[in-house]
Amino acid sequence: METEKKLIAGLDKKTTLVILISSGVLVGWSLISSVMNLGPITASIITYSLYGFYWFYAIRYKNPLVLRLVIFGTVAGILELATDHYLVETINSLVYPGKELMIWSSPAYMPFAWSNVILQLGFIGVLLTRRFGILKASLILGLAGGMYIPLYEHLANNAGWWWYKNNTLMVFNAPVYVIVCEALISLSLPILIQNAEEHSLKKTLSLGAIEGIWILVSAFLAFSIAG
């Protein structure tokens, strides 16, 4: 019964609404940036703003689930820099404009952008797990991630945030291998973040590292299959 109370506290209606609204804000901002071709500065603005907001919300309202998801996403996002390097330098597919501060082959905001998206999808994964169980939740989130993130990729292209060279099969502005990769990434989230609000800090860091490594593995697999 105590565990149930903790799970409900982490998934209260207010927090669910906040996560859903913030997800809508990200899509809306991306859409406006895309239509107006506003360039990479708008990617930095929305990324740092959302990332800071999630930290504020987690600490201000003492929400252990959001706190663990921020930490989990941050570790995964930092390790994702290796995946970006693979896409940019090894397979020469991903292109950044290079007009902003860079870390390795990526814009400096990129780890935090990944953290934001992983938090949003991860939170939805927790909701789905409670409703459908871990297996169905993974399949649903994998399908949803395979559709949601490529939309983000498409908008990012027109916004001038980043784009892909048209040297592989594309759906709008997203390569098919990216869609497969994002689906694999989303597929992994429910099982890794199950009961995330109860994770110790050490376990959260470890699981975030596993997710970061899985992102790179997913990119290898997806490019081998659909690249």
Description:
The protein is mainly alpha-helical and 227 residues long. It has one domain. Helix content is 76%, strand content 5%. It contains 8 helices and 6 strands, in the order ααααβββααβββαα. It has helices at 2-10, 13-36, 41-60, 64-90, 110-132, 134-159, 176-193, 201-226, and strands at residues 94-95, 102-103, 106-107, 163-164, 170-171, 174-175. It has a two-stranded antiparallel ribbon with strand order 1-4. Strand 2 (102-103) and strand 3 (106-107) form a beta hairpin. Helix 2 (13-36) runs parallel beside helix 6 (134-159). It is globular and about 45 Å long. 44% of the residues are buried. The model is unreliable at 1-9 (pLDDT under 50).
Name the descriptors:
single chain, 227 residues, mainly alpha, two-stranded antiparallel ribbon, disordered N terminus
Task: Describe what is shown at a glance.
This protein has 227 residues and is mainly alpha-helical. It has helices at 2-10, 13-36, 41-60, 64-90, 110-132, 134-159, 176-193, 201-226; strands spanning 94-95, 102-103, 106-107, 163-164, 170-171, 174-175. It has a two-stranded antiparallel ribbon with strand order 1-4. Strands 2-3 form a two-stranded antiparallel sheet. Strands 5-6 form a two-stranded antiparallel sheet.
| Poorly predicted parts | 1-9
Please indicate the percent range of residues in DSSP E strands (runs of 2 or more).
Answer: 5-15%
**What spatial order of strands do you see in the largest sheet?**
1-4
Q: What's the total count of β strands?
A: 6
Q: Provide the succession of SSEs.
A: HHHHEEEHHEEEHH
Overall body shape: globular
Estimated structural class: mainly alpha
Whole-number average pLDDT? 89
How helical, in percent, are the residues? over 70%
Distance, first to last CA: 48 Å
* Cα-atom radius of gyration: 17 Å
Instruction: List the domain count as a whole number.
Output: 1
| Count, helices | 8
How many strands, which pairing sense, and closed or not: the largest β-sheet?
Answer: 2 strands, antiparallel
